[in-house]
Amino acid sequence: MNTPVDPTTTEAWADLQTLKDALVPDLRGWFEADPHRAEELTFDLADLRVDLSKNLINEDVVAALLRLADQVGLPGRREAMFSGERINTTENRAVLHTALRLPSDAELVVDGQDVVADVHAVQDKMFAFAEKVRSGERKGVTGKPISTVVNIGIGGSDLGPVMVYEALLPYKQDGLTCRFVSNIDPSDVAEKVADLDPTTTLFIVASKTFTTLETLTNARIARDWLLNALVEAGAIEDTDEARKAAIAKHFVAVSTALDKVADFGIDPDNAFGFWDWVGGRYSVASAVGLPVVIAIGPDGFRDFLSGFHAVDEHFRTVAPEGNVPLLMGMLNIWYVNFWNAHSHAVLPYAQYLHRFPAYLQQLTMESNGKSVRWDGSKVTTDTGEIYWGEPGTNGQHAFYQLIHQGTRLIPADFIGVVNPAHPIKDGDTDVHGLFMANFFAQTAALAFGKTADEVRAEGTDEAIVPARVFAGNKPTTSILAPVLSPSVVGQLIALYEHITFVEGIVWGLDSFDQWGVELGKKLALEIAPAVFGDAEALAKQDPSTQSLVSWYLEKRD
Ligand code: F6P
Predict the structure, then answer these.
(1) Does residue 98's CB lie within 6 angstroms of at least one atom of ligand 1?
(2) pLDDT higher than 80, residue 466
(3) How far apart are CA 335 and CA 342, in angstroms?
(4) What is the 3-state secondary structure (H, E, C) of 484-509?
(5) pLDDT-derived band at 2, boundaries 50, 70, 90
(6) Which residues are catalytic?
(7) Whole-model pTM?
(8) Are strands 201-206 and 148-152 parallel, antiparallel or unpaired?
(9) Closest C-alpha to 490, from 341, 327, 314
(10) Residue 389, ligand 1, Cβ within 6 A
(11) pLDDT tens-digit profile of 364-391?
(12) With left for phi above 0 and alpha for psi between -120 and 50, is residue 24 left, alpha or beta?
């Protein structure tokens, strides 16, 4: 196993520190001094236009960041990922989500296995299945076509499909709806199935491992709900055989563990596989995207995959100076390690992207929330960013105050779309134009602020001038897309995947494991008997936990 380069020992790191110490942020002055700043720091990435010019950078900083990427060996690690080396060291796995997006004529053989052929075989199976659901050929047990698909999964087996489904609602086939059950809070599944007709409902149980407590519990609840409802309605007989036939018609699975799928009672013919080299949070382009395929159809999904692939190619081949994921990843290093930024806002000015920040939370934080490096040694600098956000303009009326006038530096990515799905007018006013005017206004306000003199010039009472000053120099990146197409959604996901990769390499992390979720899972199972009333199990808990569980038991009806 090769040892990660300690970034703090590189020449570039020292250069960046010197540059940071000397840099007085002045976006107003920088734009005035260089009329080409916007142009020079704006890039095209597939269909996306990405403007980095409102960041706290200059030519020297960008050059030093790119030197740092080089000095930590990023090009070699990137190639290792794309070619299927086992860079997920703690799980001894290749990291090949990019292979999910390769066209069928591409070549990639890993450990003697033709990965591209495997990927396309599953895709063909998914596409054929989705076509049957969409056309009504695939029927429920009573012969009715499917009208609702319920995906049961959590983490990567939920966040990707739900985010993409919501983002691409305008592309969804009429008459077909997807719902997503993830939480083990029984309210989730109860609410999601409450008004459903079991005869027209298809459940997809999505779990990479097929061992996840939440998903298997919800899947069993859903199975019971379906069978009981069918029996009660007289739709099927109350026999094991009839139940088995109903499960075959109403349950399919997505997993890497097809043996466990069979144990659950789902026919392997109704299962869609993927591979251990696809991380859960990187899996929406695999069979985990089945609800999306059903909703938008195989052609839409192919377009989605082509968007990912365009960005993969860009990241792999474009020179560092114009390589957008590389530049954006290194910018994040700049803010985290040299400006002490702790969090990163993602602000989609596209209501359909309302789940994108939540999706990015798993992608970025499960990947880079680590304090040891890929060889087990301690990290040498801060790692990870807290990703958060809400769609604009809602966020403007909630938390932007802190970004504008708080004491913390919060780099923010604004994501906007040029052509809306609904070009609605309010009288003569184009509402989307008004919406986007807010996007542009916010990034300008954050960058350029408002001086005390400007506030005074508006006739403001001197006593409240300080409260109305905007310091400016709040960094933002603007990302615009012509339209929120399936391809663009794929491009956005791939962009952030590669940004996450770049940061992970600089910090020396294995961005593809997630051991940090294990302890809580194990303890929950140990504490469960106490919650169910086992006094001995309760006595083994710490005093705080004992007191909490006791109060819970006392109040529980
Ligand atoms: O939370 C840990 C995790 O393993 C995630 O990485 C994963 O996306 C999620 O659980 C769900 O796992 P699975 O798809 O195996 O059910």
Answers:
(1) no
(2) yes
(3) 8
(4) CCHHHHHHHHHHHHHHHHHHHHHHCC
(5) confident
(6) 366, 397, 521
(7) 0.98
(8) parallel
(9) 314
(10) no
(11) 999 999 999 999 999 999 999 999 999 9
(12) beta
